[in-house]
Amino acid sequence: RAWVANPAAVNEAAGLGTTIDELPLRERLTADLVDYQSARYAARFTALVDQVAALGHDQLTDAVMVNLHKLMAYK
Model-level pTM greater than 0.85? Predict the structure, then answer.
């Protein structure tokens, strides 16, 4: 019951770290690319996302992030 009410507190008390599902989208996608290929490959992803984010359009940044990840993680 306690976990349903406050999963972060229960995980912390149990000595469990943050799960991948609790990370922000950008961090999850970057971690996925590191696991898929390498940190260098994921750095290319973050560099392009940073360029788009600098434009200041959140919806555009989210769209680029999701679709670039799909392209780069294509198996």
Answer: no
